[in-house]
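To make the argument concrete, we let one protein speak, a sequence paired with a row of structure tokens, as a model reads it:
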Amino acid sequence: MTGSTRGFLLVFRLLMAWTFIYAASHQAFDPHFTIVGFLKSTKTFHALFMPFTDPAIAPVVSFMVAWGHLLIGLSLLFGLLTRLSAVFGIGLLMMYWLAHMDFPFIENHNNFIVDYHIVYSVVLAFLIAGKAGLVAGLDGWADGMPIVRATALGRWATGAEG
């Protein structure tokens, strides 16, 4: 891997870490945060998202979203289990993309099918493919742990496998 590729992997990993941590700062530490308002305003896939606004489910989903942002961000920041957190990040971003969709527009008429959720997802896919946690991250250290080496998921999550 070239030095410039390593540099891009590190910069993109840190930028995506900031993106998720900043989102979490508005959610995880706000006792009144809820996803209900956001999900009630969905358009194209409204029926898909409405069940998550049920009063019995919304607090659990809100907790998972808020703390998911924080955990994904911290994982990317420290380069620990980077590939696994990037997969969860892509999943979260694609859900937001669907929720923002008023087909074929995303959020407004300036975004035709593609918006920043897609771009961020591609950046996260680049981090997965490039094993970004091995570049100035803790994935190299975690790779030496017996519990990580013992499972295929652990080896894949740290980028240690082939």
